[in-house]
Specification:
The structure is a homotetramer of 111-residue chains. With 111 residues, chain A is mainly α. Chain A has a single domain, classed as Methane Monooxygenase Hydroxylase, Chain G, domain 1, CATH 1.20.58. Helix content of chain A is 70%, strand content 0%. The longest helix of chain A is centred in the middle third of the chain and has 37 residues. The first copy, chain A, starts with 25 loop residues before the first helix and ends with a helix. Chains in contact: A-B, A-C, B-D, C-D. At the A-B interface, helix 1, helix 2 and helix 3 of A face helix 1, helix 2 and helix 3 of B. Chains A, B, C, D: Belongs to the CsoR family. Chains A, B, C, D: It comes from Streptomyces thermospinosisporus. Chains A, B, C, D: This is Metal-sensitive transcriptional regulator. Chains A, B, C, D: InterPro entries: Metal_Tscrpt_repr (IPR003735), Metal_Tscrpt_repr_sf (IPR038390).
């Protein structure tokens, strides 16, 4: 959602625009997620190999943190594009995006 | 943490026993981790397919929670076996396990 | 972050407006915070009275959750007002707010 | 709960012993909690004074972290004393403590 016009209630993204706000960071997010897939496979292998619990826990903490970093990046992209664009273009659309964002933050904070 | 002999002859794990406390739940942990691997691949696919940020975030929250469930299970197994066994057998070994556990909890709580 | 004038003459907050985005929910936030103060005093009293660790921990979890609820409310207010207003009025101001928000989210998620 | 005897089902804490495991760190926990009370009052004052949202959020993160540090300390004390002592003295009591601990960890991790 990148083609915004003005604050005066202009039509939303151009048809064909990516329906999300992370277009600019898509390859970063994918690279992180591929790394996380490998990390999870590594944790599975550790358990399969009967590795020491504490070492498995250390690795799980690292994966959890890496996932939360991706979530943070997506939240940032989302506010930066979807929420801001919607707010610029149309109060009702902005309101809807803000409600969605609050729910996503709630889930990310595990509340 | 398993082949220790207690001060009062507490029964010890058989020699050759797995060097960790999650032997009883190993297949549960592996099943959860395989599911998590699939979930992470699903998140990657969502980003690759330009799915809406909020939906990706919802899925990341689910994966994070699933990982923390595995961490909780491992912590429980660890206290139940490694820490308790060490404490029963030898104060110094118990102390070492407790120090390790505190660090693992700290990382799991992200402090 | 309120007395900025947009490039396209977007309506700006009245001069003298509160310099924050939570004006509408200020009394809610204060009520929650007063309750949290009481809860923390309650935890202190529990420890002072040698209450059982697990019961103290349950109460600390409740306080932590209540604090995170206030943080969530403030984040929501902040995006809803400060970030959106800044983005509407001036790209550079919007950018600055977004950078600040990302840092605040990072701290709130403890990354 | 500090006066344990042996692994052979010995009588639990002496009558009159504090019914919790944090006796050794009670004054530390109280000092931290008093500081946290002051921090929460500080957050209330910030909101009352219409301080900038991001600054309030930064302070809330600090309080949350301080509370989680107290939780971590209590968990450590609890495993170190209550769980270990119970496990040493009586399998059924140990089992009960371990179940309680798993629930407390679950709440602390917000699962």
């Amino acid at each position: 959602m990148t083609t915004i016009s003005g604050p005066a209630g202009t039509p939303d993204p151009a048809p064909g625009a990516a329906p999300h706000g992370y277009a600019d960071h898509k390859s970063d997010h994918l690279a992180r997620l591929h790394k996380i897939e490998g990390q999870v496979r590594g944790v599975t292998r550790m358990v399969d190999d009967d590795r020491y619990c504490i070492d498995v826990l250390t690795q799980i903490s690292a994966v959890t943190r890496a996932l939360q970093e991706v979530a943070l990046g997506l939240l940032d992209d989302h506010v930066r594009h979807c929420v801001t664009d919607a707010a610029r273009s149309d109060p009702a659309a902005g309101e809807a995006k803000l409600g969605e964002l609050a729910l996503a933050l709630r889930r990310t904070l595990r509340l």
